[in-house]
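User: Okay, second chain of the day. Same drill as before: sequence in, structure tokens out.
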Amino acid sequence: MLTTKSGNPAAVIEIGSTGIRLLVAECSAQDIRILDQSGKAVALGRDVFTSRSVSRESFLECLSVLQGFREQLKAWGIGNDSIHVIATSAVRAARNRDIITDRLYHETGLPVTIIEGIEENRLMYLAVRFAIKREIPRFWRAATMILDVGGGSTEIMFLRRGKMAASHSLRLGTILVDEKNRRGASPLSMERYLNENVRNTLDFLNDEMALSHISILAATGSDARHASEQIGRSLNEHCRIIGREDFLAFVKKIENDTVEDCVRKFNIPYADAEGFVPGMLLYRSFLERIAAEEIVVPAISIREGYLIDLAKGVDHELQNDFAAQITASAINLGKRYLFDEEHSRHVTMLALTLFDALLREHGMESRERTLLEIAALLHDIGMFIRSAGHQKHGQYIVSHSEIFGLRQEDLDIIGNVIRYHRDEPPSRQDIEYIALQRDEQIMVLKLAGILRVADALDRGHSHRIKKIAVEKKHETLILRTGDSFDLSLEQIGLGEKAGLFEDVFGYKVILQ
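Assistant: Same drill. Structure tokens below.
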């Protein structure tokens, strides 16, 4: 992970759906001191969510803004190494995203990092947690929903006792709602449209956390911040609170306001005013379906979340917390598809034991260990569809699902590891495999080889082998169980599945 020296100013430029925003701040793990902020309206989202591409005109606007911000940052003495350019849903969804980010880099010298939806969730979680601190004790012991309504998507996170329990990205944002409104949708049909989308999403997520138990709604995004300035009360310098009934009354009062009304009444920029009423309607649709009596509105954004992440550096407590949330999200996905949790956890324990014993041989680190853990937990998830070929079904499910904290690239690697945890090894005809980078293909071979051995050790799903000791002797890997029972079933399993491991690592595997 990138790090920045605590106290040194750094800049984050966010290329969003409705504009490009700059934040300059000194940030430590304990606090943020904002030095400068700027923003320019650019209608990238309007382009992408209607034509699926960034137009030439919008690109040139974007380029001009970035060049202007870079000149502004020279006055702060901030060089390119401390300028972080991130892009969210609009660029992420654009068909010409790679061309756009490449041209921006060559014109400005600033690489653009596209933040995937799940990574956006993680950064918003960091920002919310930072803003609330310990000033709302219920946040750390109750059920909470974090809701980030943007121009092109709505990010939803469920927390249980302050820990991430589930996340979901809904392709519904203020620009999409506003476009439907511009096409002449009546207020009644608009409300039905929103309610249907929200209801379907929450019905899907209700299995992971009962909506009736959610007592806090944390609303992020510029629309929520503008509302909190009108009807909220201050919690601390980074956070405001709105009562449930106050919020519902406010939305009722403004739901038929025009963009011009919002600019005049609330003194907000026109670009923000365009999505203000749609944003309020979306927040209301969610609030009406949960039990929260108050809305917590952090006064900070994904930009602050990004800086917090940089400033923390190697924060082992946060890393462990985050890893646990990834695991919890994967287990929730497995439960949704009725996986054999006991077998999956047992195979995971064996796989991680092998991984840790072979550090010198495989040369992989903590990220790869996490990917192996998730692949092991979900290796049989395809059984939900069909036993025959379940490894292929499992690959499809994982590659098209969301797991908190993992990017699409991670899910694609995990899907490939699941695909090759049994049957034939990869071939040059396997599209999903050859689409990976060369180093990712090698990673898949290593992780799949380890997973095959671990799965073979619990072939009968009986969990008889409670632990293994790994001994390396010349070209042989000896797995000692310390048990006296008959190991013939597991030895047969190893004979069937250890071939890939032996080819990749050069060890003959023996179980004793």
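Residues 398 and 415 are 6 Å apart (CA to CA).

User: Thanks, on to the next one.
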